[in-house]
Design brief:
The complex is a heterodimer.
Chain A lengths: L24 H13 L3 E5 L3 H5 L11 E4 L5 H14 L6 E7 L1 H5 L2 H9 L5 E6 L34 H6 L5 E5 L4 H13 L4 E6 L3 H5 L5 H10 L6 E4 L4 E2 L10 H4 L38 H24 L6
Parallel strand pairs in A: 1-2, 1-3, 3-4, 4-6, 5-6
Antiparallel strand pairs in A: 5-7, 7-8
Helix pairs in contact in A: 1-7, 3-5
Chain B lengths: L2 H10 L8 E7 H11 L4 E4 L6 H12 L6 E4 L3 H14 L3 E6 H6 L1 H9 L5 E6 L12 H4 L7 E4 L3 H18 L3 E6 L7 E7 L1 H7 L17 E2 L5 H33 L6 E4 L7 E5 L3 H9 L5 E6 L1 E3 L3 H9 L6 E6 L9 H9 L6 E6 L9 H9 L10 E3 L2
Parallel strand pairs in B: 2-3, 2-4, 4-5, 5-7, 6-7, 11-12, 11-14, 14-15, 15-16
Antiparallel strand pairs in B: 1-8, 6-13, 10-12
Classes of the chains: A alpha/beta, B alpha/beta.
The complex binds iron/sulfur cluster.
Protein name (chain B): Pyruvate ferredoxin oxidoreductase
GO molecular function, one term (chain B): oxidoreductase activity
Pfam families (chain B): PFOR_II, POR_N
Chain lengths: 326, 399
């Protein structure tokens, strides 16, 4: 499979004027998701950037129903919506959760696990931008190690929680990762997820210029590099087993992904500059790529650790492969 | 005449609402489960917590026996229990759950959302405290939710639990307000009593599922629910809620009167017993303590009883009307089975607010906290305090 960009929006379900930052993965994702799901869809949205992007009351970005709900309660609210629709004979209406990584990895995990283990007929989509971006870049359990956030000003010491393995343990009929840089793959996965019955889960890489600190214009390019460096591998599972959907041809170092984002910039400095990252989205995007400073020993250790985590994650995935496409 | 005596009399005097009941021996929790079924609730969520658990067990058992056409989902927490109800109610189903103590406290955030999204949800709370750890009768859990925007009823008997749930759906759906029906742990939840169970048709006729608004999720007509509200509009939501809250006391009385037409039992926001110019002391009570107080004051000609059934919104007009019948030097004593971490319990606080324009002498007693038995002797101890003495404390702890 080649990187592709030909996911043609055939029936636009999103209004103009989304309240996202420029280059935001969320608002692109909303267009792709809604194009596949169609108007007869109830989107359940916990607190996250999308609750702002979807529009303040009573506005509605989507040609579809949007139910805003509490941070911890996305999958639980969706459970109630699903059963009520079923009781009304509306089994064909899609119920789709659109949550951020905080509402998936952290505060939303209990409800997510509950709904998955009850096999609720829901599609849960996580836009993983790797931090609490809506509140101005605080660390979540989805924040990769090394990333500087306002609550980890020296860089996050621990790696991101492997939510896909937690999801896998629930034995659900369909789960996958996807990227806005691999659109045909995203489209196929959305269609598969829509068709499947039971609890379905999609984790989509979420470029976020103000949070990741890069120019909006390179959002998709960075999402592609995340996949090419195996930082964000593309895989799926339909009824057991894992299938890796994309095998990067070149063995690109993870550096290629990290060094182009301001959130990792301190790892490429000599440590003399200890500026904490500017907080909030108001500060705008911080292009900080192409660092040329020397890397201190401690930072090199962290960079090595990140490369090791990425390699280990890939090895693990390879080990789980049931269908090989090498 | 008590409600039970009234219904017995009707039963003997021939056809009327009473003849359309079956007499059963039920625990308070069983009465609650039965009421949910009689109201044709279609969606229930559950999470076990003592002493509520037998309500959701009974509901699940009735569904399994195909006596109850509802979907019950066993959730992973009370936060999720209420969040799922929120979702299902938004789609337009009549929903129910029951919880208790820590469970209700855990759901606190969702209670706010439900009330201010104006969802007509009815939930039972079997009252118990939080910490120190305790599972017995106490109102601290539900009193802690009094500012969430829910209507709250406190029940005296299993019969009242059943009847109040039926009335609550009517009140909830005509006002777009959620209602919490509170019963005492064990003294009500696990105590068997005679309960007159109405026939299904009577309940169907009294409270068909009718929402005041059609504003609900309709996949064919996409809308957004619960989005961000900016400062220029926020207070209009509060004001609309407030205006409705201001009508609830009257509506409780009206629904109570209508209920009597159908079922032969009358209910109001408050019940005043033996309150008049001769009354020297009025005990103000909620829940099952009321029954004990009824027995004791029967031998005290100069003692009245004011039962608060509707606690939130506090029925100020009814309370004033009842207390205005007494002489100026009549002492009013609130019995609080809740500790609010303040000088006085919730009932006394509300009474102070209600009577602030009078120089009425108000006293409070803390009694029955954490399930301590409030026996007839406890009530006599409360009455033995010399409220006319200038040395008597305003707040007294009774054991
Ligand atoms: S902060 Fe990031 S995720 Fe949120 S709207 Fe902006 S770009 Fe999108």
């Amino acid at each position: 499979m080649k990187p592709d960009t030909d996911f043609i929006i055939t029936g636009e379900q999103v209004s103009k004027g989304a309240l996202s930052c420029r280059g935001c993965g969320w608002s692109l994702l909303a267009r792709y998701v809604s194009n596949v799901m169609g108007p007869e869809t109830v989107y359940v949205v916990p607190a996250c950037c999308f609750s702002i992007i979807a529009g303040p009351s009573p506005m509605n970005l989507m040609n579809g129903t949007v139910v805003h709900t509490l941070f911890a309660a996305a999958a639980a609210t969706a459970t109630g919506v699903r059963h009520a629709l079923d009781r009304q004979g509306k089994q064909e209406t899609n119920v789709v959760v659109l949550a951020g990584d905080g509402g998936t990895f952290d505060i939303g995990l209990q409800a997510l696990s509950g709904a998955a283990s009850r096999e609720e007929n829901i599609l849960f989509i996580c836009n993983n931008n790797g931090a609490y971006m809506n509140t101005g870049v605080q660390s979540s359990a989805g924040t990769p190690s090394g990333v500087r956030t306002t609550t980890d000003p020296s860089g996050k010491a621990t790696p991101a929680k492997n939510v896909m393995e937690i999801i896998e343990a629930h034995n659900i009929p369909y789960f996958a990762t996807a990227s806005p840089a691999f659109l045909r793959d995203l489209q196929r996965k959305l269609e598969k997820a829509k068709e499947a019955r039971g609890f379905r889960f999609l984790m989509v890489d979420g470029p976020c210029p103000p949070g990741h600190k890069h120019e909006p214009a390179i959002s998709i390019e960075l999402a592609r590099i995340a996949v090419e460096t195996r930082f964000f591998p593309l895989f799926e599972s339909a009824n057991g087993g894992i299938e890796i959907n994309y095998f990067p041809q070149k063995n690109l170092p993870v550096d290629d992904y990290l060094k182009r984002q301001g959130r990792f910039a301190h790892l490429y400095s000599d440590g003399s500059e200890s500026r904490a990252p500017a907080s909030g989205q108001d500060s705008g995007a911080h292009a900080n790529g192409n660092q040329t400073r020397e890397t201190s020993g401690k930072n090199q250790e962290m960079l090595n650790a990140i490369q090791m985590q990425v390699d280990q994650q890939w090895e693990k995935l390879m080990g789980k492969q049931t269908v090989s496409k090498v | 005449m008590s409600q039970l005596e009234a219904i017995e009399k009707q039963r003997k005097t021939g056809p009327g609402p009473a003849s359309r009941h079956v007499k059963k021996v039920l625990k308070g929790n069983a009465a609650a489960a039965l009421a949910a079924r009689l109201c044709r609730v279609s969606f229930v969520t559950a999470y076990p917590i003592t002493p509520q658990t037998s309500i959701i067990e009974e509901i699940n058992a009735m569904i399994a026996r195909k006596e109850f056409d509802a979907t019950c989902v066993n959730m992973e927490s009370e936060h999720s229990v209420f969040a799922a109800l929120k979702g299902a109610s938004l789609v337009g189903e009549r929903v129910f759950t029951a919880t208790s103590g820590q469970g209700l406290l855990y759901a606190h955030e969702v209670l706010h959302a439900i009330a201010h999204m104006r969802l007509p949800i009815v939930a039972c709370n079997v009252g118990r405290p939080s910490y120190p750890w305790n599972i017995w009768a106490d109102q601290t859990d539900s009193i802690s939710q009094r500012d969430t925007g829910w209507i709250q009823f406190y029940c005296e008997s299993a019969q009242e639990v059943l009847d109040t749930i039926i009335q609550s759906y009517k009140i909830a759906e005509s006002s777009n307000m959620p209602v919490m029906v509170v019963l005492d742990a064990f003294y009500l939840s696990h105590t068997s009593e005679n309960v007159y169970v109405p026939e299904q048709q009577l309940v169907d006729d009294f409270c068909p599922h009718e929402r005041r608004t059609s504003d609900r999720v309709d996949p064919k007509d996409p809308k957004s629910f619960g989005g961000l509200v900016d400062p220029s509009k926020y207070d209009t939501y509060n004001r609309a809620h407030w205006e409705e809250m201001c009508r609830i006391e009257e509506q409780t009385d009206a629904v109570g009167r209508e209920f009597e037409q159908f079922f032969g039992r009358n209910y109001g926001a408050v019940e005043a017993v033996n309150i008049g110019p001769q009354t020297k002391t009025v005990l103000v009570t909620m829940s099952s303590i009321t029954t004990t107080a009824r027995q004791v004051i029967a031998d005290h000609e100069d003692t009245g009883l004011l039962k608060i059934r509707l606690f939130k919104p506090f029925p100020k007009d009814s309370v004033r009307k009842a207390l205005d019948r007494t002489a100026k030097d009549c002492n009013v004593v609130a019995v609080d089975r809740n500790y609010t971490a303040d000088r006085e319990g919730a009932l006394l606080q509300q009474l102070r607010q209600t009577m602030c324009k009078t120089d009425r002498k108000l006293f409070g007693v803390y009694a029955g906290l954490g399930g301590r038995d409030v026996s007839p002797q406890t009530i006599r101890n409360i009455l033995d305090i010399d409220y006319s003495s200038p040395d008597t404390e305003e707040i007294n702890w009774i054991q």
